[in-house]
Amino acid sequence: MRWILLICLLLCSLPVWADTWTHYTVPGAVIFVPAGDEALARYVGGLTVQEIPRIAAALGVTTPHPLPIYAYNDRVAFLRDAGATPMLEGVSYHPSGLIRIDATQGGSIRTTLAHELTHSFLAQRLGSHLGELPLWLNEGIAGHLADPIPDEELPDVSFPVFRGRVLTLEEMDQAFRTRGDTTAAYIESRSLVAWLEHHHPGSIRRILAFLAEGASFDDAVYETSGLTPEAWWERWQRSIPNWIFWLTLLSSPVIYVPFALLLAIVAILRHRRRHADEEDEDEPTDETMDDPSSRLDRPCERID
Ligand SMILES: [Zn+2]
After folding, report:
1. Contact 114, 145 (CB under 8 A)
2. How far is the CA of 147 from the centre of ligand 1 (A)?
């Protein structure tokens, strides 16, 4: 039954030039590649087989549905199918779970694939409750599982903030919704998820379990960690060391503005001082006004 559903979804989602694709079946997925590119199919298929059990287990997905994965060896074709968004490397659709990845990016294919697999499995895990999961957390979990932070770096997990810029939860959601500048939002959401997993291990999996049972997001977070989402953000933010902001400030042009103003004031004062000195030289002094002849005319007192 599941395979019939998958085939129906594939037929609905196939691009108009579907006859140029070849598919290969691997455990948990069907890999589509441009016809003839068997090497790409083997590569992506190998990554998929490695990543699916890890990600499914982290999210509490016990019986992963097979996923259709399209791997592109042409950036233009990828953008044509996935949407012409700058920097886009992969996309996941729900409820089908279909994934498209740009396989022209070299070393980051594994990260992109893991990121999109996470989105697809989140959709499977939550089903009709997916809407309860905020966009920032959906992206944060995908970022965290795509590029896990090593255990030894977890105590410093709040360091990754983008140029010292901290977004509120709403600002992160807004960035992902509008697809504007999402760099800071991607970094911060991943850091928030890693922080929670470090301080409350297993939280993400438990939050998803609560949501899947119909709990609200606030309740799911509180039941899991004893925190509200805002308190979670607050504590994460307080753990960012001050030197991060100083480092950022020193590398920012803003720090040089006061120095520039100071230099400008000094230059103006020196200019005015020099100008005043020049005026002093031109003006007649009391001494030059004194007529020397008056001294000559002064009667001398002679003592014979
Ligand atoms: Zn994403």
Report:
1. yes
2. 12
